[in-house]
Write a structure and sequence with these properties.
The structure holds 2 protein chains of 2 kinds.
Chain A (H helix, E strand, L loop, with lengths): L11 H25 L4 H39 L1
Chain B lengths: L1 H18 L7 H26 L1 H6 L12 H19 L7 H21 L16 E2 L5 E2 L2 H21 L6 H17 L13 H26 L1
Antiparallel strand pairs in B: 1-2
Classes of the chains: A mainly alpha, B mainly alpha.
Chain lengths: 80, 229
């Protein structure tokens, strides 16, 4: 008799999103740090701006990921 | 910056490769742990980065609002703490860090190449030296290439951990050895860095010392538990 397919956990996708968001925020901080070390002010401001955009984007993703994660954990918990 | 991204990517690819050999932690819980580690690393690296710059920030406090300024030690300790909290909340009792140890060695080593190429603005260079391998990072003073020392140390540590992981070992031991070795290394090598000192050591060294004390206490509790069982 074939083994029944195991249902994929609901928690994986939001946890992945949160992990990626954390990585994006770290890279955003890295971009800002790199910008601070560049003497050419035009290039430096581009680095810092893209770093801030990356950091804030990552922060938004993280908020979405954590809310999604909590909802997924509640749904999974209620199914057990 | 490209080396930082390469470091994350290289570390993740190696982690995925190692995970194929077997992982006692199911997929959903593993991703929960990775998410906790990423967020904890972010917070830890930023908080310790700010604390390290505290003497300058006191003089020019608006810099507090500027992004940038991260530390690997803060990232490791923050990630470790966050994973332990999430494991306690989610009821995960298995050791989960072994798979991260060698990828972390590789990721940090790649990142350090970027630190070396960035030179003076990166704040990871060493104190002046008259040794023949001293590097001039742009200020005309030959300095200890502490980034290169760290790359050599991390590659040796990765090789040792790989050999150790092949033999039977207690769960979690690979990660604990990695953490103890890296924190001890940073405690020692940071004496060769011209960072502001507080009571004889810089903030990163104090954080390393705190991490080592916590590791030692955890190890003692662990051994006592095994002996009593």
């Amino acid at each position: 008799m074939p083994e029944p397919l195991r249902k994929r956990s609901l928690v994986i996708a939001p946890a992945r999103l949160s992990a990626i968001a954390g990585g994006v925020m770290l890279l955003g901080l890295g971009l800002c740090g790199a910008g601070a070390g560049i003497h050419n002010s035009q290039v430096a401001s581009k680095f810092v701006t893209s770093g801030i955009v990356g950091f804030l984007g990552g922060f938004l993703l993280l908020i979405v990921g954590i809310i999604w994660l909590v909802i997924a954990a509640i749904i999974e918990g209620s199914k057990r | 910056m490209p080396f930082e991204a390469l470091g994350y990517a290289g570390g993740y690819l190696l982690y995925r490769h190692d995970r194929r050999a077997g992982d006692p932690v199911p997929d959903d819980r593993r991703w929960l742990i990775i998410a906790a580690a990423a967020v904890g690393a972010l917070l830890g690296s930023r908080i310790l980065g700010l604390l390290e710059q505290a003497p300058q920030l006191v003089l020019h406090w608006p810099d507090l609002l500027l992004p940038g300024g991260k530390t690997i030690v803060g990232g490791l300790l923050g990630g470790w703490l966050a994973v332990e909290i999430v494991k306690a909340l989610a009821g995960i009792h298995t050791r989960t860090g072994d798979l991260f140890a060698i990828p972390l060695c590789l990721g940090i080593a790649i990142g350090r190449v970027g630190c070396f190429l960035a030179g003076l603005p990166d704040d990871t260079y060493g104190t002046p030296t008259s040794l023949p391998w001293g590097i001039n990072f742009g200020d005309g003073i030959p300095r200890h290439p502490t980034q290169l020392y760290e790359i050599v140390f991390l590659l040796a540590l990765a090789w040792f951990l790989h050999q150790y992981a092949q033999r039977p070992h207690p769960p979690g031991a690979v990660f604990r050895i990695f953490l103890a070795a890296y924190l001890t290394w940073r405690l020692a090598i940071d004496f060769l860095k011209p960072q502001p000192h507080i009571a004889g050591m810089n903030m990163i060294q104090w954080a390393c010392l705190a991490g080592l004390v916590i590791l030692a206490i955890g190890e003692l509790i662990n051994r006592r538990g095994l002996r009593d069982a």
